[in-house]
Amino acid sequence: MDRLRALEVFVEVVRREGFARAADALDTSPANVTRYISDLEAHLQTRLLNRSSRKMSLTSSGEALFERAKSILDDVAEAEAIVSSATMQPLGVLRINAPLSFGVLHLAPLWAKFMKKYPDVQLDVALIDRVVDIVEEGYDMAIRISRAGSASNVARKLATSRNILCAAPSYIAEHGMPLQPSDLLRHRCIGYSYAATADEWQMLDAQNQPHAVRVACVMHTNNGDTARSAALGGLGVIWQPSFLVGADLRAGDLVQVLPDFHMPDIDVLAVYPSRRHLSAKVRVMIDFLVEEFAGTPPWDRVD
């Protein structure tokens, strides 16, 4: 039995949540996938997967092997990259998780440039707004939008984004411009479901003194683009990062509300597991993004 190949097949079965999908990803047959898993279980003398007609799950032995096997395969891929190229060109699949709106607006335009520079790296990009466990869910790295950083992973700052209160000119014409944070109590607001402070909007004045207002939201959404579209339609006041609404503010389609107050900035972070060696493919991706977002980030640039 080719043990390394068996580990590769096992990891792919877990990641793809099925034998048939793993076979497609590995360009082989489901029968071959089944044989590799059976041989691996026989060699280790333990069951790795609980299988039924409807679902598949890892045994405790399978969970332990999955984490170790991922690390082994990453180390092998990096070693192959080092010995196969005099330029130490990174290679292999790079699995990235990123937030939906940021990924579409500011990462998607960069992927072609990256892959031209590193043609031996294949990107597997998943856009998900919820915070994922990058080790548990099989990602090499993630892009996070956060004030707090990451407690369980290494994080490198790529850029900063401002949080901005804003509304459409049509809404302001109909309902008036708030002059103080407390004025928001009388306004229609659009809430972001993943906000750490829920419907309590926190902002700072020019002296950095805090002001908190528990607003009444006429709508909640877990997606920034949905909140932005509702605000553009004149529904109410939103707070969203400048990477999402910066172009609308410059075009005048949205106007800043309470400009004498500001919400705390948020960081755009590249996050990767601290317990694993930083592979060449992750390292070059992080360096690439740092360079692309250097200086004034693209969402705050005035061309």
UniProtKB/TrEMBL annotation:
Keywords in alphabetical order, please: DNA-binding, Transcription, Transcription regulation
Q: Enumerate the spans annotated as HTH lysR-type domain.
A: 1-59
This protein's species is: Rugamonas rivuli
User: What GO molecular function annotation could you give as one example from this UniProt entry?
Assistant: sequence-specific DNA binding
> Which biological processes are named by the entry's GO terms?
DNA-templated transcription
Domain of life, per lineage? Bacteria
The record's annotation in SUPFAM superfamilies points to: Periplasmic binding protein-like II, Winged helix' DNA-binding domain
What protein does this entry describe?
LysR family transcriptional regulator
Similarity remark: Belongs to the LysR transcriptional regulatory family.
